[in-house]
Amino acid sequence: MTWLKNALQQGVWPWLCAGSVALSLLMLGALLALLLTRGLGHFWPAALTEVTLNSGDVVAGEAVRDMPLPDQSGSERLYFTGNRDLDDARWRWVATDAIARQAQPENLLRLERRTWGDFIGYLEAVEVNGERFTGDDAWQQVQQALSLPTAQRARYQLTLRTPQGQTLRQSLATVISAEAPNAMHLGEKLGAWGSDVWQFLSQGPRAANTGGGVWPAIFGTMLMVIVMSVIVTPFGVLAAIYLNEIAHQGPLTRLVRVGVRNLAGVPSIVYGVFGLGVFVYGIGGSLDEWFFADALPSPTFGTGGLLWASLTLALLTLPVVIVATEEGLARIPDAQREGAVALGATRLEMLTRVVLPMATPAMLTGVILAVARAAGEVAPLMLVGVAKLAPQMPLDGEFPYLHLERKFMHLGYHLFDTAFHGEDVQAAIPLVYATALLLVLIVLVLNLTAILLRHHLRRQRGSEC
Amino acid sequence: MKYAAALGLAWLLLSLPPAGWAQPQGPSVSGTLGAVGSDTMAGLMLRWGEALTTRYPDINVQFQASGSASAPPALLAGTTRIGPMSRPMTDDERHAFVERYGYPPLELRVARDALIVIVHRHNPLPDISLDEVDAVFSSTQACGRAPIAHWETLAEGDTGPRGPIALHGRNITSGTYGVFRQRVLCDGDFRPKVSKHMGASAVVAAVGESYGAMGYSGYNHLTPSVRPLPLSNRQGRPVMPSDTTIQNGDYPLSRYLYIYVNLPPEAPLPPAERAFLNLVMSAEGQQITRAAGFVPLPMDTLEAQRAW
Amino acid sequence: MTRARLSSQPLRHLQDRIATALITAGGIGVLLAVLGIGVFLLWEAAPLLLDEELGSLSMLTPLAWGTLKAALMALLFALPLALGAAAYSAFFMSPRLRSRIKPTLEMMEAIPGVVVGFIAGMVLAPWVERHLASTLVVIVWLPLSAGLAGMLWHLASRHWQRRLPLSWAALWLIPWLVAMGMLALWSTPLVEQALWGGDLRRYLYDAFGLDYMTRNALIVGLAMGFAVIPSVYSLAEDALNEVPRPLMEGAQALGASRWQAVIKVALAAAGPGLFSAVMIGAGRAVGETMIVLMASSNTALLSASPFEGMRTMAAAIAIELPEATVGGVTYRMLVLAALVLFLFTFFVNTLAEVVRQRLRRRYQRMGGGA
């Protein structure tokens, strides 16, 4: 009995606790690994397989995943086959037992097209200015022509053949990119991967958010966060200075401080409700009635937009900034303040010349933490101003340049939207992974910066005091 | 043949310069185009929006798609002038609009769609009748059949899934939810156990992952992961949903898709809205309809609705 | 020079007074605006409460139940993990490892809910549906296997105990848990065949009438638990770490083992701190929106089954509020839900804060402190 008790106390319980740490780390690692592999793997030029079935049917495309059959008698494989205009579907499930032959022909192409999505098949011929090219010449012509501007590409007419033998004529103007992944060697694949990642980061979404990139969402997120920090920093700092330096340190101040601290724990959706009711319907509606009456019934500020979203998130992150700044202010020894006042400085001078410079890094940490929180927050934005598609940026060359009333795209909402509202979840999932990875990276980098900054600071301060 | 015709049309359109929907205002149209409404039509609206901005880069397109029920309040509150809806407005919604503005909203039929009842791709169930669908999905059985909760009750024989039917549907604000309730459940109530998904494609994905599941969604979200069930129409003959049966109305749950416009009687439409509606009513717009998975309307039906 | 300075003296004081007034006004304004949230919610929801349309309040019942169910499932999963991890890293872990692990685990908190929800709803839920038995076996087996590792370690020779010290056990256990997880996944079909006739879901239905929904409380619990772990862990670890060392050492000097000192002395001393950590975790679980939205089936059910979904207040607000007509019953209902969330989290957080401050004072009295 004592032996068991000893074993439990010295071996089992502590190791169980260690197991919790290990398991938490494992889950975090698994999540990040999943995001990394799926998010980055999507851009890798996948091999295209041409499958001949026992029935004689031919299917060509990218193998996506295998699933067991419901009666456990075998498995089936999902192929992305493209050619929606011809087959009415982009996907095909094939029972693995029904596959007679598989091949990866080098001339099998994948064209990314407008309107109908990807084409997978063969290039028969290219006609340009009355000339006709076939075979390898045709492929070279296409590759050269793809670097031309769209208007000039319209001269090229492609004759394409599907793996099933149908032919199709297509203007090159509708083709966005073309590749023959089976013929690519590693270097070319790396190059294609790099350029795809870049496109993802730099372009707008296409084909109802199932293709293209997320640049407007990145930009929208950044702009919203910047506007938010411009609002939250002065007010947060002001409130912190008031609480710490000016207010009488009585029970009331303590109460307020606890209250502010607790607001950080209030669910974000509650802030969203407040933003919708007060900013959008209340203030926005009144602004429209006073200043934009001629535009009614089209609303200007009476609908969710960049300004309201930024304000709502500023309110949401205000406690973060206040708490962090207050912490910084509290760390400054009173001797510094007393010294400044003893030397004849007024309170304002003491604050601006002595206290604030010393508290700047703490304020910065607070703002970075606020930004990190805001960048990942989606729920309140659903109420106050994100849009599914707003390809026009809220910032452009048109007066007044910054359009605070416009709706904007947001990475987090874009993720939610493409994963659940999209046309075809299967097609959108890889992009969702990539978006999720990007969002996580942004938030983690911001948090790391804040942690390092704080760490650096504490060390510096430690040597000073 | 159908493919060849469509292909020919596509080729014709794609090879022409993009002037299929010529503009009275000339090439430079700018402005903001906002639309609030149907989630079913979100993909379609986005594609129309893409085509519009390709043609007029200065138009600012903003869509919010959280369900058809969000369109009437938005039109009413003035947060938008264009409300895509996957069902016609109810009398109450129309009445509220008239009360607020003094004129009815302009109703445009822009495409044809259908509700489909889907099961997992390996589910052998041959077909289903409307009454049976009600018996499966409804808790009130307003259409008068005894409730069906298990696959054993629904399908005789040994093949296919066993046990309770896992039900998947849309959330309360979606038009699909409303139409399904009205046309299939005889205005009854859904079983509380029907999973309420955020989007139609989420329903399709969920049913495609689960062997014992049944769900409903829009025709345009159909993927090979699921199988649409042929539905018995009033003559008791099961009809498979397809472009033809949806177009001619043989398939019992086919419907129109609408765009509601806040168009005051004498005032002209702002240029961005006008350009958008011109695109929607053009051949190119209807081609996009097909690419988005819906069934296009005949051109004369479209032309007959022009009121601006 | 002197005269110039003298003449600017009143100006300086004026500036000072104006600045002070401005800061005061700004500060109070900000604080009022922040606290105004509660006022706004109360104002908007009040007509509903005063109208005595209390019948419509029954709409909130399934939502409140769903919220509680989701939060409870999340805490059920997160608390053992978070508290165990806190105890280990406060008392057993090597300081060098701790300085790395703690920030890493706290980093988990930064992962946006929308990402966790996506993974839970789109990846985890379908997988669990197909492998329900494996999931349950893994959930039971992993803690057991960690205990087993501890038992083996206890039995091992001194040499091995020194080679694999407890203070680094969190690292040794990672490969061990991976291997054990694999083992569980591999062996589950055999277990399932033997115990449940090859299909656990079918067995659950036949034996207990339990229905299975793809997105259910189990999934929400796992996903939201993941999101709650870091905040509970961080606060609990702080509380445990601040337990005055002399207390622990005294207990051990009186003959208690290290583990006994942890349980009997440290947990008792830090109890209020742990309580406040749990409260903060509960507050987070109750208000989390995106995870529930994406990982639950949003069905307003009043069921206690872990395999059925739920609809929470936060999710209902996110879905329905944009569509609700301003001033209508639904609108007010949802604002009321927001008010309930606000009051609940505010109350819980205040409680946690008060308890924490008490604790800090108690430690100071004990003469130790951080």
From TrEMBL, chain A:
Subcellular location as annotated: Cell inner membrane; Cell membrane
Keyword ATP-binding: no
Keyword line: Cell membrane, Membrane, Transmembrane, Transmembrane helix, Transport
CDD domains registered for this protein in UniProt: TM_PBP2 (cd06261)
Topology of this chain in the membrane: Multi-pass membrane protein
Top-level taxon of origin: Bacteria
InterPro entries documented for this protein: MetI-like (IPR000515), MetI-like_sf (IPR035906), Phosphate_PstA (IPR005672)
Listed Pfam families: BPD_transp_1
UniProt-listed NCBIfam families: 3a0107s02c
PANTHER family: PHOSPHATE TRANSPORT SYSTEM PERMEASE PROTEIN PSTA, PHOSPHATE TRANSPORT SYSTEM PERMEASE PROTEIN PSTA-RELATED
Name of protein: Phosphate transport system permease protein PstA
UniProtKB/TrEMBL annotation, chain B:
CDD domains: PBP2_phosphate_like_1
UniProt-listed Gene3D superfamilies: Periplasmic binding protein-like II
Residues covered by the PBP domain: 23-284
A Pfam family reported for this protein in Swiss-Prot or TrEMBL: PBP_like_2
Annotated keywords: Signal
Annotated SUPFAM superfamilies: Periplasmic binding protein-like II
Region of interest: Disordered: 70-89
Keyword Phosphoprotein among UniProt keywords: no
Signal peptide: 1-22
Superkingdom per UniProt: Bacteria
PANTHER family documented for this protein: PERIPLASMIC PHOSPHATE BINDING COMPONENT OF PHOSPHATE ABC TRANSPORTER (PTHR30570), PHOSPHATE-BINDING PROTEIN PSTS (PTHR30570:SF6)
Protein name: Phosphate ABC transporter substrate-binding protein
Provenance organism: Vreelandella gomseomensis
TrEMBL record, chain C:
Location relative to the cell: Cell membrane
CDD domains: TM_PBP2
Pfam families membership: BPD_transp_1
Bilayer disposition of the protein: Multi-pass membrane protein
PROSITE patterns, alphabetized: ABC_TM1
Listed InterPro entries: MetI-like, MetI-like_sf
Keyword terms: Membrane, Transmembrane, Transmembrane helix, Transport
High-level lineage: Bacteria, Pseudomonadati, Pseudomonadota, Gammaproteobacteria, Oceanospirillales
Protein name: ABC transporter permease subunit
Organism: Vreelandella gomseomensis
ABC transmembrane type-1 domain residues: 64-352
Family recorded in the similarity comment: Belongs to the binding-protein-dependent transport system permease family.
Membrane-crossing residue ranges in chain numbering: 21-43, 63-89, 110-128, 134-156, 168-186, 217-240, 261-282, 331-355
Coiled-coil portions: none
